[in-house]
Write a structure and sequence with these properties.
zinc; Rfa1; mainly beta; single chain; five-stranded mixed beta barrel; 3 domains; 6 helices; OB fold (Dihydrolipoamide Acetyltransferase, E2P)
Length: about 375
Amino acid sequence: MADAMSVLSVGALEQVATGELPQEPIMQCVQIKPMASQNGNERYRVVMNDSRNFIQGMLGQQSNHVIHDGKLKKGSICRLLSYQRNFVKDKHILIILELDVLEEYGEPEKLGTPIALEQAGKQEEAPQDVKPQPGNIGGDGFYGNKQQQVQPQQQQQQQQQQQRSMAMRTNGASGGSRGNIHPIEAITPYAHRWTIKARVTHKGEIKHWHNKNGEGKLFSVTFLDESGEIRATGFNDAVDNFYELLQKDQVYYVSNPCRVQLAKKQFSNVNHDYELTFERDTNIEKAEGDEGVPQVTYSFTTIEGLQSVDKDQNIDIIGVLQDVGEVSEIVSKTTSKPYSKRELTLVDDTGYNVRLTIWGKTAE
């Protein structure tokens, strides 16, 4: 079997720690764990090793197939084709969007004696007669999981490192390069500073409300990048600030402050555990280029396959319109408002058909 150690990109993670992203580095996957996730979205946490350091990471949902197909296993040697760096709770996190498992190298035991990436800088500062101990390769400590307690001096060093990292990212954004774009799929309440580059795939109308607590207005948009999609909502002042700026099919840079909270699935069919709420100071800029930002993403199934789809799961179907029903009107029991409704029948090459109900202006 080929020598796995000889192909590892030794030192690649040290470059990641300084803000560089080596092109297609080769690393070893030394741990795979499923992540607890809201709304049934399947996610996996991984630990990657370059023989000198290790780093915790998250596998993008579009790459889950390497686990489903049995290719990615503990010990696998992988080439990272597309990835991003994040900084969460004083730790570097790798977001792996696309990878290639080099199956010819098998699944060897842990290569080298790697230490946690956060300890690399401490080793350089340690006295010559003191040998720092290797870090513990574990799956905890990010995305809401329990962290081990750190000593005050270590915590101070990590905070200083984080501040340097944040300053570097801020300078990069102001310079126009924005080299550290954050993938939408990795947005959580624990990511404190981020910028996404995303396309507006949906823009809703301005809605007004009146209740006992007052009145107001809101609108929502859906952002899409190569890693996924997320819903964002603006209220009151944010409507005035951003509604005309954000246009469907255009690409924007969006940076926090922007509140991240659990998605309200009853109001949205967007496939993300979280959603955004624009703040007054949220930074939104139109991007000059849209290279690498997809127009749309699909999750196709056949009509026959609907029998195995979970309730409330979002899917896409291609079918032939077999029947168009008449427009009818129903009155909401809660609001007493009338709504237009129409029923369609779709059929595909599996021989099955399904009824589709459309509402409002779409039905008309």
